[in-house]
Amino acid sequence: MPSLYIVATPIGNLEDITLRAIRILKEVKLIAAEDTRKTRHLLSAYKINTPTTSYHEHNKLTKLNYILDCLKNEDVALVSDAGMPGISDPGFELISAAYQNNIPVVPIPGPSVLLTALTVSGLPTHSFLFLGFLPHKSADRRRLFQSAFTDHRTLVFFESPHRISDCLKDILSILGDRKIAVCRELTKVHEEVFRGTISEAVKHFTAPKGEFTLVIAGNQAEDRPVLSSEIEKRLGLLQLSGKKAKEAISELAGDTGLSKKELYQTWIKLK
Questions:
Q1: pLDDT digits 0-9 by tens, 224-240
Q2: Cα 36 from Cα 34, distance rounded (Å)
Q3: Ranges of each domain in the chain
């Protein structure tokens, strides 16, 4: 019976591909790729001539039935732009649909930026919480970090270069100055793994480029929210906007985890 092969591809360096992955990509009749142009670069490097079809976030609903029809008669491989398909990409829907149609799903394991970043972070790896791609808006990011504030597991997530600076400031504001590993362009020419505190990372990444994976220490027993200069600034701006003390303090307490008493003392001091 035809199978859907979930094939891991390199996250940067093209040499990071398994012999089995190369063989499967040559043997299947069709490769469903997140970006056929990026995948063609890999296929050309290994002289793989298998036809490709695009399968990404914007066409996943219209392309799904086509790929399932192909799977009635022939093997299909699913690849993402980098790493293991099905993690923070549209591959999940295809995999789920394959199972619903009793189509065998065969994993071809290999590179994963998630695990690569985690293992080089120097932070605990025995238990972690993967948050995927972060929300685009600051308020949504802050709510997400607040929900994870008390979690003792190591936190891992992805971020884009044009949001990384604001993201790091949000993290510092909500989680406090924890240990962090900022992994940039892993396995590529300009690979960088920055290890330090979140405040140090804010100062370091002033003109960021590349793809980022962030690994942050979980909440320790002695951890508590820190009243940073940024929070004081927000409190001052709320004063200037004419907000009442009770309303402003409740808002910031919910966002940051700081006590209302501490925030009120700062409010008085700013006045």
A1: 666 778 888 888 888 88
A2: 6
A3: 4-111, 114-216, 229-270
